Amino acid sequence: MRHRIRRPSAAISRRTLLQALGLGAGAAFLPSLLPGRARADSPGAARRIIFFVTSHGTVYKNWQMRPAAQPDDQDWEFGLGATPQEQWSPILAPLYAHRDKLLVLDGVANGAGSISGINEHESGHASALTGRVAKDVEGSLALPDGASVDQVIAEHLGADNIVRSLEYSIGGWPVCFDELGQTIPYEGSPQEAYKRIFPNGPEDPDLDPTEAQRIVAAQPSVLDLVGERYEALYPKLSSADRAKIEQHRALIRDLELQLAGLADVDCEVPQPPGPNPMWGAPTYPAEMASVFFGLTQVALSCGLTQVVTIRHDTMFNETVGAPHGDLHNDYAHQGSTDPEAGQIMTNYQVHQAERFRELIAALDSIPEGEGTMLDHTVCVWDNELSTGEHSMVDLPIVIAGGGDYFDLGRYVHWRKGDVLKGPWGDIPMGPAHNKLLTVLARSMGVEVESFGLDILPRAGGGEISTTGLLDRVTV
Amino acid sequence: MVGLGLLGDAPRLRLLATAALLLAGCQGGGGGGDTEGGSATTGVGMTEGTGVDTATETGGETGVPEGCEGQAYFDPGETPLRRLTHTQYNNTVNDLFPGVTIPTQAILVDPKSGGFENFGELQTPSSLLIGQYQQAAVGVTAAAMAEADAFLPCATDGGADPEGCGHAFLTDFATRAFRRPLGPDESAAYLGFFDQQLAGEGFGVALQLTMQAILQSPPFIYFLEYDGTPVPGSEELELIDGYAMASRLSYFLWDSMPDPALLSAAESGDLATAEGVEAAARRLLAEAPARGAVVNFHRQWLDLDKIDTITLDPATYPSFDEGLRDDMREEIRRLVERVIFDGEGTLEALLTTSETVGSAGIAALYGAPAPAEPWGTIALDPAQRAGLLTTPGWLASRAHAVHPSPVQRGVFVLERLLCQPPPVPPADVDITPPEEGGDSPVTNRERYDEHASNPKCQGCHQTIDGIGFGFEHYDSEGRWRDQDGGQPVDASGILLGSDVDGPFADAIELAGRLGESETVQRCVVTQWYRYALGRATNLDDACARDALDLAFEAAEGDIQELLVNIAVSDGFRYRRAQEQG
């Protein structure tokens, strides 16, 4: 049952990783998450993808850029490299240093999320990465009726990865779903996340294995027995129960292969993360993000997986300079109308832009092939909503990296060329985000022509097609 | 406190906002708040007297509900495959190693339905969960082996006969872990694995690895109920087998594995009769683990976890800190335990009692003298306090940073006590809560004026705020107040959609009304029934629930009696016959 996993061969230096991982506040409580011989040399096109999904949309007026007073009612684009820093919007300004590797998308709409007729937060989460309409679930969060793009990509890459995909969370509702529309749970504990990808911790090959290490090494055998016990049960079960048990059994097989693969990984294992920062401390969100970014970077550079989703929602008032009150109810809902709320939510989004910068800077600091890891990694900053007032048109989307597939260094705007028939009224919209999801799937080699819904209802009758690729984004 | 799974910073608004529901004047969730997903027929349509049990027995002395006559059994409904909840997993691994303390293992909390974490339909496996089971098994056995003297029948190196000791211990361990005797194929598989590991790895490692396999195997993780007994005269039903019944009872009433006495009752066949089940249920309820299990139901039903998210303005509420937050949670736990196990035992008492168990911090919130002990009885002013709905923890977890939230308080009562969850607001209305600050002193009530004047809001908020305004005497920390914004507090309201409708003066009168309401009783019966079966209810369950309602009424709202009645009900003892394959 053991599979030797093929991995890249060249090593990168400890110094390079030190630089890469020494970034950000997280380094303070993750002092030694420093692989001595991590790898990052996969050649060719973008072969990794990271989804960084945040909450409450954006404050659009402080996110969008119109350096030449471009009109809203036309399609246009401009080069980010030639736009001086002072012309960058407050929310995007933190990304200025990486301007040549960015693609800012202004005007894409989550149409599927807009037509569900249920609470927009639930709808936005269920549709953001699926492009499908959320279905209300009695007493629980709404669910889509199919898989999210990260899972479709992970399924496509399948056997190439020791760990199919990683899902990390610093708070927030789920955005990742399997093909049945069931929630993919997140890992929220850095310590557990570390144990999952480095079950044996750092090992010294010169020492005899401890009893604990021998037990870890024998886990694939344990799982082999466990898997057989699940199979032995099949004939006794009804078809519905059997489906669940078969799913459980398949996941045990995956885990068995994963553990066997991890045991064979030729990658120096970093020290485990220390204790979490204090819950409620203003720096908590940034520190937690840093440690998950560190784990992401190590997992990718060691070749353990190619697909990572990081959900980030937890935020404290002090972090963004807000007085008392609930960030969601008291500020996000008024982000566009109330100046104080607008400033607080802008601070919030600037904070998240700084997190995204930290993630891409870390990847950009590791040489890979002719460039850096970032050049071969598509990083997508996405959101459950467009604005704190629950709009889902003009999604604030930034892509960084993956320059072999995406035409980077540009800001692209789409006009609202269609009118969606929404449950409560007409909604002018730009291209459906299904087209973006299609492009993202294809950037990772999934040959699809559409993603999620194929059509949306047009106001006044007829249909809006959501199939095909988003224009003007690829090379 | 890292947000795993569904807990986020955003609020959760529920239910489909359809025009139909809005027009229905917000009396959503008919039929006791059930999903109207079932077929219209009730019962399984068997001829009376053909079975070994009768509906009359099920209903106790209270008779058969109207419209349900002539049914030998009430439909037990669907039985989606369930497994241990995260709480049950941790309780069980501790009970498996008596005398050893096993640290809490990280196991996912399953998606909740109506607050409950144990619905089989939502308990789908995921790669994260499977990985957690694997890591937890390693963690549990490592902790156990550190104190192996406490449970091993031989020396920790296996002594003179490691194989014999291993086999004896593992057979006993697996029997307890699986909550039933091992089949021959199971013995061969696990003991064969042990022998193989013993040869290569030695006794201690081999024992741990085999226990780890047992702790990840289906009979441990899942509640397997395929060994039912056919019911004479029925092709549609089967009686849950004794061992599965022992697990049902034990995980319902103890949130952990059956004890040896319960497994003996399963073996002897005692659990095949309603009398045997009743005796077992009464015994379990009389022992300590039942207290934790019943409190755990209330944690979910009453959403006590929301206390974790209380955020109060420190300038307005300087006394609120993490210690007081913990005390708020603990007070409600102790109050529930005291009423149900040491007090009147009734739902009405839970909703109306003027005595609680609190700390000095809690007493201060009540304006009462600190109790003599760290946690002691506090006598409350019956003109100001009445049970659960006037506890600081409940009031503060349904409040904004400065001002209380009549909307959140009203929605809770509708959703969880009356089983009439209101729909979400239409998407085109501004649901921003009223300004927290502001220069002109206004009362909290006036902040919600829009609800009365905007026709889009009126329909639902007449019902929601009508209840919620009843709590205006309690600020965001749960303290009593006579003045609000410089005006005398007006806590009058109106209750709509129940059997005890009408205007009321304040929360005390409202609580008294809810305490004697049949609508509330029916709702609470439904909540317990759903929790006991780990599934949503639908119209197929109507007769079963009606029978429980009658029994609950006859027992004058005694909660322990309700649990016994659920345990002996058809829904708990039978399941629909399954096609295997």
Structural account:
- The complex is a heterodimer of chains A (475) and B (581).
- With 475 residues, chain A is α/β, with parallel strands linked by helices.
- Chain A has helices at residues 14-21, 60-63, 111-114, 120-128, 149-157, 190-197, 211-217, 219-233, 239-264, 284-301, 327-331, 339-364, 433-443; strands at 48-54, 76-79, 102-106, 135-137, 140-143, 166-170, 307-312, 367-368, 371-372, 377-383, 396-400, 410-413, 418-421, 426-429, 455-457, 463-465.
- Helices cover 32% and strands 14% of the residues of chain A.
- In chain A, the strands form 5 sheets. An 8-stranded mixed sheet of chain A has the order 2-12-3-11-10-1-7-6, sandwiched between helices.
- Chain A is globular, with a radius of gyration of 22 Å.
- Chain A starts with 13 loop residues before the first helix and ends in a 10-residue tail after the last strand.
- Mean pLDDT of chain A is 87; it is low at 1-44.
- Among the domains of chain B are: 86-221, no CATH class; 305-402, no CATH class.
- Chain B is mainly α and 581 residues long.
- The model of chain B is unreliable at 1-25 and 27-62 (pLDDT under 50).
- In chain B, a hairpin with a 6-residue loop joins β7 (493-495) and β8 (502-504).
Query: What does the main sheet of chain A amount to?
Result: 8 strands, mixed
Low-confidence stretches of chain A: 1-44
Q: Name the beta content range of chain B.
A: under 5%
| Termini separation of chain B | 43 Å
Briefly note the structural class of the backbone of chain B: mainly alpha
CATH architecture of the largest domain in chain A: 3-Layer(aba) Sandwich
Overall, the morphology of chain A is globular
Reading side by side through the largest sheet of chain B, how are the strands ordered? 1-2-9
